[in-house]
């Protein structure tokens, strides 16, 4: 029987750390071999990590990546190895590539044909598009390789490769997470595999890189579009599955149809290699169980993406510990909880910095959270510092009314204190702003926006509540986040009796308008016609547009929605456009 | 005699302000008509401004831009009008386009073929490439239009259009400034026009947009590659020149050669239009003098780019006034001088914020600068505020040594004070960091980096000195920037007797290494082989790499070098790559 034992290694690479990424790959090759795998595949750009951005313009980086490819090649004895790397003819002609090795020999390589250049992707900035459609017959199994975006085109390489004999398509990916993406992927892969009567093995990167989280969730679909394997979400995994190529052959011969596609212009190359050592007919393999890991539910998935993104940003930058300003509000409470789940309670320091506007409840709630999470907490009242700065400003501020300047000053003194502790002890400051307030600019630049990583910057306020309730459900009632934090009206507490809803609509309304404008890219007219009050829509759109300058100076944070602030949404600061 | 009176209108557009840009265009059309011009051409994307970035994803924006195009069309009676706009078939198929109008009729349009997607450009993110090569015969003059990048390809549209009869190529641009770029452009345009025996009229945008400054400098080259007109640099201008088409025809007939180029696959379309009104044979035109404005010298050009970028950023964002922290050092002195030249002395407020480490000289120098420039200056000593924050931090900082945390705290209190005044009175804070210190991270995030615009962020320290001396040469010795500011050793004055050279090499050495690494993108090995000490190169490269996180939160500032920090240079923050 022709069976291919296929292994997919979803590794957590570090961009630029070629040695680490190579070591990781070799470790997984050994493990796959020990499991009797005939073939092991790694994600897109395994060696460099993804996305390496302008590191790709460094000639030494390109050379070093080829050097590491050679090291991986030497580990391919007895196991076909597919690995993502950067290929190049010269510094001005580079490719997003996959190499296929066996027994220390490079059997061939593939250059990505469809280069994504939208959303967070800038692949046209770096890569030339490939134009060849290689098919590899290795020990009697026909393999087609392609990369990420390639699989999204119905008449792309998967079609050409299948029609020219490929039985298994290895599609290697660096596909970042957003809510709902796994469903889109699986629907697509299912139809692509059944349409082409081919096994499709989709291997995805895992882990955080700056604003992106790669969620793993590698999958294998059989030639009838049935899911036969799914790896873990948000963590490293080695997925192993036996693919029955004889059945595929039989199925194809019973279901032949003439192709209407014209591939005469396509550059199809076939490569054959028969290993003198192990091959797919080998019988003394250990038994393997192929897992179809269940998909996490929506809130669990988002929560784990935030944990993963935070942990990897902190640790891959060489830090261990973080510091967070605790206001007693829900944003800082959720951020702190995520940080503890990401880094451990001993690596999280909470600081409460009450002012004269801070309610007694806020301090109590912060302390209760700290106790529940088991973290250290410092209390640093800011009033003396506020008064001292207002005093040095007294001449400049003479005869003016107290207002936003004084409110922001409090936030900035808190920023100073956190940054001072950060500088003194080497902790990263995590900021606590949510997407709704960042959208409308209800944040203080250099104040609560001061910090290295903005954990929930892509989480709308209404989702902050959902995630808090979700996290509380992990433990017996009432959960780690104090109930009072969840039920009290949100307030920045920068002036007497302030609440967010003094100047903003209720958050469910605000979030609907923001989602319409930002993620759905609806126009003013469309949003109004969806039933929102026109003055309110005008106000919100203007706030979003005018606060681009603040967002440009915001720290990075985890992308979880289809369209996050950051590289996903590139708007000018000088922007005279007005729709309403 | 066939003469085409050609006008090039280099306008200063505002991105997104379609009404303003349209008004501007119509104003210039009237002026060109009054000068008897047969044709007036405007820069790339005149209507939207450049680059509109993700505004292009808004359907209302696309529609509104077409609406303004119709308005401009109505002004084209009696004058052929070439204007840049955004064309589209649907929201997913948009083009960087030029329309050509006469007498209220659109004669045709052109879609940019070569889309730049490197450096600061992301045109593949937005546009589809055109594929047609139209030629317009209007009142007996043969016109080819193409856009910006198109002209840089020897076998691009200029060749095809010339070979198919175009006598004048109108190349419309939004080409941002960097040092030396005008020389590159003119060398290219000269050879392109002589190679194709064609007049080339190059019209460029002018003014600042976020980090970019468009420098105008529109030019016309005759069919033998001779420069016959050059517009002003860094300001609006209308360039008018009479092109002798009869001579061109004669020259071509005497210098015929067979083309070796195969354009059979190219989609060439010809359009003919004869106006019933004015035409090129009209004789009662006012005399015009075609200026070949001299090129500014290097320092003057850079200085004016900085002034233009600063003025436009401030004013296009709706601000009038700026505030600058004066340290008595050369960076803040130059920044303030640029601000005064950009906005006027009444719109610039200097604030000196001495600490216990500030030398007497620094305060004197700041005051002298303020007097020389005629600006207001406030003095706000920060010591009480520093002590107050250190006091609230005393428990947290118990038993630690004074160091970077305390140094940064001073810078951050200064940042707070400037931002408080900014918030109170609506001034933009200008930051004063230069490229050398931003490169190696010798700046304090949320401290001296706090502000809306970073005037000299792309100016290396050695060039800061050159520009200061240059600006001083405007007036009788000793000039506006006090001599002591130029001669004293640079210091951040954040601790006792500190100078920059305690921890950095001399700035001429530092700047050479930085230019090698950043602008020339040389590797560690190459830089060392150019004669720099290996340990020093290692140190500098590591500093540059590790401080990416700070630059990511920096305010925008004027790009003047070939490769600025910002959208020009996109590196990951999590970056494990090490060359040395």
Report a brief summary of the structure.
The structure is a homodimer of 580-residue chains. Chain A is an alpha/beta fold.
Which helices and strands occur, and which strands form pairs?
2 copies of one chain form a homodimer.
Chain A (H helix, E strand, L loop, with lengths): L2 E8 L7 H17 L4 E3 L17 H15 L6 E11 L2 E10 L2 E7 L11 H4 L5 E7 L2 E7 L9 H7 L4 E6 L7 H16 L2 E6 L1 E4 L2 E4 L3 E3 L5 E4 L6 E8 H10 L12 E7 L24 H19 L5 E4 L4 H14 L4 E5 L7 H14 L2 E4 L3 H10 L11 H22 L2 E4 L3 H6 L12 E2 L6 H12 L10 H5 L19 H13 L4 H6 L4 H13 L1 H5 L28
Helix pairs in contact in A: 1-2, 7-8, 7-13, 8-13, 10-11, 15-17
What does this structure look like?
The structure is a homodimer of 580-residue chains. Chain A has 580 residues and is of the alpha/beta class. Chain A has two domains: 3-258, Carbon-nitrogen hydrolase (Nitrilase/N-carbamoyl-D-aminoacid amidohydrolase, 4-Layer Sandwich); 298-551, HUPs (Rossmann fold), CATH 3.40.50.620. Helices cover 36% and strands 20% of the residues of chain A. Chain A is built from 18 helices and 20 strands. The first copy, chain A, has helices spanning 18-34, 59-73, 123-126, 157-163, 181-196, 245-254, 298-316, 330-343, 360-373, 383-392, 404-425, 435-440, 461-472, 483-487, 507-519, 524-529, 534-546, 548-552; strands spanning 3-10, 39-41, 80-90, 93-102, 105-111, 132-138, 141-147, 168-173, 199-204, 206-209, 212-215, 219-221, 227-230, 237-244, 267-273, 322-325, 348-352, 376-379, 428-431, 453-454. In chain A, strands 13-12-9-8-7-6-15 form a seven-stranded mixed β-sheet, with helices on one face. A six-stranded mixed β-sheet of chain A has the order 5-4-3-2-1-14. In chain A, a hairpin with a 2-residue loop joins strand 10 (206-209) and strand 11. In chain A, helix 7 (298-316) packs across helix 8 (330-343). Chain A is elongated, with a radius of gyration of 27 Å. The N and C termini of chain A lie far apart (68 Å). The relative contact order of chain A is 0.09. The mean pLDDT of chain A is 95. At the A-B interface, helix 2, helix 7, helix 10 and helix 11 of A face helix 2, helix 7, helix 10 and helix 11 of B.
